[in-house]
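Re: export button greyed out
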Amino acid sequence: MLNAFSILLGCEIGGEILRRIYSLPLPGPVIGMCFLALFLLRKHSALPHSLVSTAGVLLKYLGLLFVPAGVGVIANLSLIGAEWFPILVGLVGSTILSVLASSYVMRWFASRNQDSGGAKPLLNGNKMHGT
Amino acid sequence: MHITQIMHNVWTQITPTPLFGVTLTVLSYAIGLAIQRACRGAAVVNPVLISILLIACILKATGTSYQTYFAGGQFIHFLLGPATVALAVPVVENLEHLKRSWLGVVLAVTTGSLVSITSGIALVELCGESRQVALSMAPKAVTSPIAIEVAQTVGGIPALTAVLAISSGILVAMFIQRLRVPPRLV
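Workaround output, generated via the alternate export path:
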């Protein structure tokens, strides 16, 4: 647990350092995630157990972790009140459009692959969406 | 001293401490989870949205500021960083599944993200005039912890993006169920 947390925090701070040195347009934790993925891929053996279990706990309660940020909307209630219509149209419209686009591309790719006897399609070719 | 006065004194002493924000967040999330379980895990009943609403109502009703709440909330918020890094673990674990059709996944994710970003910005700009709202809409398709960070980077409102990302996820969950039943809808 302690080792795992050191690795996670180490990757995050590494990401923050890299972001600041090269003024990258990516958030530090996202760069840190890439670090960890590369690190795990380089080790061809099984994933370290403590890291898997600690990551599992953090991700199991991922929802809890963005509650404080979400509560911040109470500071923007007047903005939401004034802009509720574009927000609603943008949210529903672009969500549906992007799901349709993703699934269309995935299906097109899967059918093309099936013709050449390739891989089976993934059920939901979607990105990790929201929640 | 009168009992309500004692309670009032205790309240004003407790609320500025981190204990208040942390307890309120954990409790309300537990309530949100319990409600979702009671509703058999329906996608519309989202524990995160429930706890955000619950806390927002409690803060409004008691006249407690967001800053006061965030004295504790920041400790939970801080864990978003390591949790985002931890997302690498399921990615690597599922690499075998991804390998089979990685090109399709990459193409589909890229297309979906581009459509989500451009249509989100375009629709908001078309119907309203707030640049900040448009920028908050842009990163909503990505998983919430990353969306919050991206909103901060591009100049959106992280709190608004958090709520949009969660709502968008709920919409997708509802929409996908419909999409899957007739397999050739698209």
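The radius of gyration of chain A is 20 Å. The button fix ships in the next patch.
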